[in-house]
Amino acid sequence: MGTHNLTTVSEFHLMSFSEDPDLQPILFGLFLSIYLVTLLGNLLLILAVSSDPHLHTPMYFFLSNLSLADICLTSSTVPKMIVDILTHSRVISYMGCLTQMSLFILFACMDNMLLTVMAYDRFVAICHPLHYAAIMNPQLCVLLLFVSVFISLLGSQVHNLIALQLTCFEGVEIANFFCDPSQLLNLACSDTVIRTIVTYIVTAIFGFFPILGIISSYYKIVSSLLKISKSGGRYKAFSTCSSHLSLVCLFYGTGLLTYLGSSVSYSPSKAMVASLMYSVVTPMLNPFIYSLRNRDISSTLKRLCSWWV
Prior knowledge:
With about 300 residues, the chain is mostly helical. The protein is built from eleven helices and five strands; from the N terminus they run E-E-H-H-H-E-H-H-H-E-E-H-H-H-H-H. The protein has helices spanning about 25-50, 60-75, 80-85, 95-125, 130-135, 140-165, 180-185, 190-225, 230-265, 270-295, 295-309; strands at about 5, 10-15, 90-95, 170, 175. The strands form two sheets. The chain has a three-stranded mixed sheet. Strands 1-4 form a two-stranded antiparallel ribbon.
């Protein structure tokens, strides 16, 4: 495909999951259902945390903000995809693409940072239980949230600056269902080596460092739990981390493989499935994972449902 100058590129074409006309109503119903379940589940989780004084703790404070970030993350991609299926159009304007990319990175980074902060919260709760209230005070919680938002905004703007520096594209076909930043870099006709280096540097700063923080926290948690003589005490302590650990594995396992894999060997179908997992499925599963594995959340949700019924 011929090269397009930046001044002449006014739109990009997104990839669809299927071109079969008979599957379009099924895909429309599927993604609309997923989006509505994601909104309802995360809103219920936020409502449960805000309405129950017993849940006004650092862990649930970060969890409710994670749910809010998940709502925004899904809303940055799924509504556009639903409209595209309904209108049989895969076109997105150049500015619309940059806007979607910016919002997606912002809220994906927010998920990233909040998962890291929640790992630190679990580390303090298990390794320093007597000083937990003093360490995780409301001022520190707000500060950690502010830092998470700031770093997320920084990551979003760094990607925008990289995208704005691209002077030409080799095509307008984006091999994903949304404006994936790695795909825009793949379409650029600039030096491949520089593009790959930039991708790894940005991923290291906004991906590997938070992962190292999570791994460090859980290493200290496991080391502390091994010192507990009773197995029942170990299980009870670690059970408070199981939901968070499940989200970490699901989010990072699919997200980083997609981002880094685009620089090495790229498969459009695999990339779309992986992107779907961490940007759509994970936000939907978040409230279910916490509500099913957490008695406090479950009891509060049951009480809320009983009030409405």
